[in-house]
């Protein structure tokens, strides 16, 4: 099979806008977290989402060792937090920038995120540089879902619902 070049692939993938989450874990294998956009819903029965994690990520050993993650979906105001968890900072400095609680698994739950999916890792598939984590949702936290942080064209944007009560959902996309 003839593969396209990784850079050509990334250039094309930059055309796919995606929601941004901070994926966290805690437990005997340690507390860690990373910014992620490679996340999607698999099935609602049983409620399952998938997360792709680079095995070179500093969070990898903790995620695999704890067998649990929380997917914290970011709102527009969390752009700086996304940058912190996507950088090379030590874990303590990443977590110091926000308030956290826990639900079922002990993975950190971001206080004011749009939605948090607390998960146990049910299965893992190795693909190239990444592991695909199949994550069963064991608890949820939801707050107002009025705006989201979006990563598109190698830049952050926000998408929001304006006046949903009066006019129905109207969506606006703005570069931040
Ligand atoms: N799935 C992943 O592991 C992702 C990793 N990143 C990392 O964040 C940094 C900045 O990324 P960009 O500004 O978007 O520029 P970029 O040129 O590195 O990536 C463009 C797009 O390609 C995809 N991509 C990039 N690296 C990938 C990887 N190693 N595996 C699978 N897909 C990948 C993503 O959809 C990304 O938005 C890079 O270090 C990149 O590797 C960003 C998005 C997704
Ligand atoms: C917008 C954005 C989306 C990302 N999505 C993913 C992802 O889905 N999976 C992944 O393994 N890394 C992803 N990354 C990269 C990780 O956040 C980053 O590589 C990780 O924190 C590595 O840094 P570290 O090894 O110093 O922790 C993304 C980065 C950014 C900025």
TrEMBL record:
Its EC number(s): 1.5.1.42
Described function: Catalyzes the reduction of FMN to FMNH2 which is used to reduce pyrimidine by RutA via the Rut pathway.
Catalytic activity entry: FMNH2 + NAD(+) = FMN + NADH + 2 H(+)
Oxidoreductase found in the keyword field: yes
SUPFAM superfamilies: FMN-binding split barrel (SSF50475)
Top-level EC class as recorded in UniProt: oxidoreductase
Alphabetic keyword roster: Flavoprotein, FMN, NAD, Oxidoreductase
Protein's name according to its UniProt entry: FMN reductase (NADH) RutF
SMART domains: Flavin_Reduct (SM00903)
Family from the record: Belongs to the non-flavoprotein flavin reductase family. RutF subfamily.
Gene (UniProt): rutF
Gene3D superfamilies: Electron Transport, Fmn-binding Protein, Chain A (2.30.110.10)
